[in-house]
Design brief:
- This protein is mainly beta.
- Among the domains are: about 80 residues, no CATH class; about 45 residues, no CATH class; about 35 residues, no CATH class; about 90 residues, Nuclear Transport Factor 2, Chain: A (Roll).
- The strands form eleven sheets. Strands 23, 24, 25, 29, 30, 31, 32 and 33 form an eight-stranded mixed sheet that branches.
- A hairpin with a 2-residue loop joins strand 27 and strand 28.
- It is rod-shaped and about 135 Å long.
- The termini are far apart.
Length: about 425
Amino acid sequence: MKKGFGLIFLFLVILSLSFISAFSLSDLWGKSTGNVVEGECVDSDGGIDYYVLGGCYDNLKYFAENPIYDACHPDKPNVLREVYCSEDGYCDNFEYTCPEYCVDGACSEVCIPESIETTCGDWVCGILLNNCGEEVVCGICEVNEICTFVMGNRICVCSPNCTGKTCGDDGCGGSCGNCGTAPCVENHCVWPACIPDCTGKTCGDDGCGGSCGTCGENETCIYNMTHYYVCVESLCTDTDGGWDYFVKGEVTDSNGSYIDTCIIEGSNTYLMEYWCHNNQMLSERVPCTCTEGSGACIVESPINNEEVEVEGDDVQVEEESISSSLEIIEENSTSYVQTSKGNQEIKISPEEAIANADKIENVVDITIIQEGDVAAYAISGTKQAKLFSVIPITAKVEQKISVDDGSIISTEKPWWSFLARGI
């Protein structure tokens, strides 16, 4: 009898716990369970209700501790995923387009803007549209920065600025130019001033590229015994202006006249060059290429061993021109460029300079300039690169190559080159 009573008591306890558990699961939603398939599915918003956030659980997939909720579609504006209990007794869902807005898992007549952090994500600058179609400013860059795309996001990057500068910082850790040995003062190269010196001179060079005076029609500027340049009566004249192998001239002094002459001895040719020095005729036998009756050497370029024509600021090479803001001078079959520090020999050919310009694939222009204290080839061109290692892009590059030893003096690349591969 006692054993039977015990079994009945245990059955009543289990039945009581079952009612308490059912009541607790229903109470999780705080409202009527609505569309219910008894013993299997519960929908907290009472069924299909687009304007109430609801959740659903069943005994098949979505249990009470892990229900599925109504939600706004992440990629489709104003589209609601409505969950409900199907006739089969499990949770199901479908998409519904709200007439106005979808906000926090329910249709709404009023749009509630999401936070700036949610709208902008990893963007630190630029403008995006939020869930309500409103423009949101994600951030503003500093004065020396620009807002640009990097890996799908907008970020602020430093923008170099060398406006009005020839040297100094470009604002992004780079340089606006190289002054060589000259100091950079307030973003400009300051070259030491040249002071002309004409002490004891009436003619000749003043030491700064100028003149201390001009002699008369029948006078010659000579370097006298007291080491000064002075004008004296011309006793010797030269029609080619002096010691010039490449122009035929005639020298006249008190002993007669002498004409520059090409001498041919077998396969060898020589030039007999005459010139005046301190009012005296001097001569020199010079080995060079010349032709009978020419009286002048044929200019062979030390640049590329092709015949060239020197005309002031240009060196014509095989019908192509390498321009220069500096004067090009030919002496003794050697080319020099005149800089503020004196004449500098051109030892490197344009072809060698281009070969040394390792950041340029296609040459657009080449010119000879003064860079600091030295003369250099300024080579402009392009190079193919990949922006962000993906997007093909053409970069403009300029490199300066020494005419003396072919070394790279400087390289100028686009400001965005740090974002590209191959430059």
